[in-house]
TrEMBL record:
Key words of the record: Membrane, Transmembrane, Transmembrane helix
Protein's recorded name: Transmembrane protein
Ranges annotated as biased composition (Low complexity): 480-492
Residue ranges with Pro residues bias: 442-451
The organism of origin for this protein: Mortierella alpina
Disordered as annotated region, ranges: 424-457, 479-564
Spans through the membrane: 352-374
Keyword Transmembrane helix set for record: yes
Extent of Polar residues compositional bias: 510-550
Length: 564
């Protein structure tokens, strides 16, 4: 029988085997000590249907004011009765397994050790019925002088879970947030990653090695190879929560306008923290928000604008949110060429529009520069020969004869005119040969492509409208001196100006689009059974050592229904 989605101040969610429903676990404030578990069908996320699964009541163990985290056993999802692990944090740190057959294991804890917050609980491995996680305890180990510890949680027997303070490398003592990712594997040692963000705006990535061996022969897990996180200018707040999707970690945070902003990191591929680009509407950030990964979606539970509990889902493939109560964010930051969207988009592809615009802009600039250069050369060429003629005349003329021809004898004048006529004839013939040589020594430039021809024609037509008429029609003047007559004036020879050649515009080459620990495997037991213990007998740890503790069951006080 379905019902409305219940409201919890500190809830946790985890996907079930169907891929369309989630477990919702919490303790209602009106029924203190009653741990409730529901399955919620999200096929219609705007109208989710909640189905009650089971409950466990004990005010000694469960609290409505204690934060919680839920994890599926990803390596054991094929099992028909694969449970979900529920971890409750300080002030009462207990954990248990809730099974699809409505069974809930008795709560367990580690003696004298509690865990601080789900924000510092990182899922770093999943093989068979085992999960590995790193977390921060409420006490430091005298051996390691650190509160960081490793956990190995068991799906088939909660009493076989273990804790170990020795993890080889230890993150900062005052972390802001911690998130884990893992590499899917069928045997151990398995690999994962732990990303720890500090309160100074930085972060460190650690490689995690998970082991299924007994504590007497190996550690539960070890951290190594720390490297800094490329924050990319991102600053996380104390509101941020996490969701692990196998090898990708998602962080949801509260934006300045109260909406939800999302970041992603794939520590196995890149050290960069990226903002997930969401062009559409987003949900508001709720104070009691809980998140989990379900397939390719990130699902969150929280209060809607009206205050009623609701679910929203983010599709990492389409990059869009769905569900009720979505709002338009104050600003949208699209992904750049480096960080991508974090939702599967290929950030290595360059924007085609920017490339085309750059090429066209470059061609225009080059064409303008070439045009101005040729125009300047024309002006220089026109002025050069005239200056040469004047200068040559000043060098060879007789001032008394050129400015007063009548003062020279008639014979001398006739002789000079005759010499000038002969020189003009020779210069015409010589100039004709020179003109042919100039024209034939320069092969015509290859015709540009059609679109370039149009651009060149338009540019030439525009430039011709601004060239003075005398510059278009003024022919060049070439002066040829006659060395045999030092005082003979040789007039310039008029040579018709060759047709103006179009400037050669640089054309870029077409770019091709294509240029651009050996250990035995862990074998999960075939029969899954729920441990049953007589009410008169307290649980004892399966494994014990001086370096790490196994969980133990705490007998509740009389009157809670767990002890005789």
């Amino acid at each position: 029988m379905t019902s409305a989605v219940p409201s919890y101040s500190y809830a946790c969610i985890a996907p079930d085997r169907s891929g369309s429903s989630v477990y919702l676990v919490g303790v209602p404030a009106a029924s203190e000590g009653r741990l409730e578990a529901y399955t919620v069908d999200l096929s219609n996320i705007d109208s989710p249907a909640a189905t009650f699964l089971s409950n466990q009541t004990s005010s000694y163990y469960w609290s409505s004011a204690a934060p919680k985290a839920c994890l599926p056993y990803a390596g054991n999802q094929d099992a028909a009765n694969s449970p979900v692990m529920v971890m409750q944090f300080s002030p009462k740190s207990y954990f248990t397994n809730i099974y699809p057959n409505r069974t809930i294991d008795f709560p367990a804890n580690f003696q004298s050790v509690g865990f601080l917050s789900p924000k510092l609980f990182s899922w770093t491995g999943a093989v068979g019925p085992l999960n590995w996680a790193t977390t921060v305890a409420n006490t430091s180990s005298p051996t390691t002088n650190s509160a960081w510890t490793g956990l190995r949680l068991n799906a088939t027997s909660i009493v076989d879970s273990n804790r170990d303070f020795v993890i080889s490398t230890y993150p900062v003592s005052n972390p802001l947030l911690s998130i884990g990712t893992y590499v899917a594997s069928s045997n151990t040692p398995a690999q994962g990653y732990n990303v720890v963000f500090d309160n100074s705006g930085g972060g460190v990535i650690y490689t995690v090695l998970d082991s299924a061996s007994l504590l007497l022969t190996d550690r539960i897990l070890s951290l190594s190879s720390p490297q800094p996180v490329d924050m990319g200018g991102i600053t996380l707040t104390t509101n941020a929560i996490t969701a692990t999707m196998n090898s990708v970690g998602y962080i949801l945070d509260k934006a300045t306008d109260g909406s939800t902003v999302m970041y992603s990191i794939s520590p196995g591929k890149s050290s960069k923290l990226q903002r997930v680009a969401v062009p559409g509407n987003v949900p508001i950030f709720s104070t009691n928000i809980a998140a989990t990964a379900m397939g390719a979606r990130v699902v969150i539970y929280g209060s809607s604008i009206s205050g009623a509990p609701s679910f929203n889902s983010f599709d990492t493939v389409s990059g869009s949110w769905s569900g009720p109560g979505l709002v338009k964010p104050a600003s949208y930051i699209p992904p750049d060429s480096r960080n991508g969207s974090g939702s599967g988009s290929d950030s290595s592809k360059a924007p085609v529009g920017a490339i085309i615009g750059g090429v066209v802009g470059g061609l225009v600039v080059i064409a303008v520069v070439v045009f101005l250069y040729i125009r300047h050369r024309r002006k220089t060429t026109h002025a050069g020969p005239a200056a040469t003629v004047i200068h040559a005349q000043n060098g060879y003329e007789d001032p008394s004869k050129m400015h007063n021809p009548a003062a020279a004898p008639l014979m001398v004048q006739n002789y000079a005119l005759q010499q000038q006529e002969q020189a003009m004839a020779q210069n015409k013939l010589h100039g004709h040969h020179m003109q042919q040589s100039v024209y034939t020594s320069q092969p015509p430039p290859p015709p540009p492509p059609p679109h370039q021809q149009q651009d060149q024609y338009a540019l030439h037509s525009h430039s011709m409208n601004h060239i003075p008429v005398q510059h278009q029609q003024a022919p060049p003047v070439i002066f040829q001196p006659q060395p045999q007559e030092p005082y003979t004036y040789t007039p310039p020879t008029i040579i018709p100006s060759p047709p103006t050649q179009q400037p050669t515009i640089f054309q870029p080459q077409n770019l091709s689009p294509d240029q651009t620990y050996s250990q035995s495997g862990y074998i999960p037991p075939t029969n899954v059974s729920t441990p049953h213990t007589p009410s008169t007998q307290a649980y004892t740890p399966t494994h014990s050592s001086t370096t790490a503790g196994s969980p133990q069951y705490i007998a509740p006080p009389n009157g809670d229904g767990y002890a005789a």
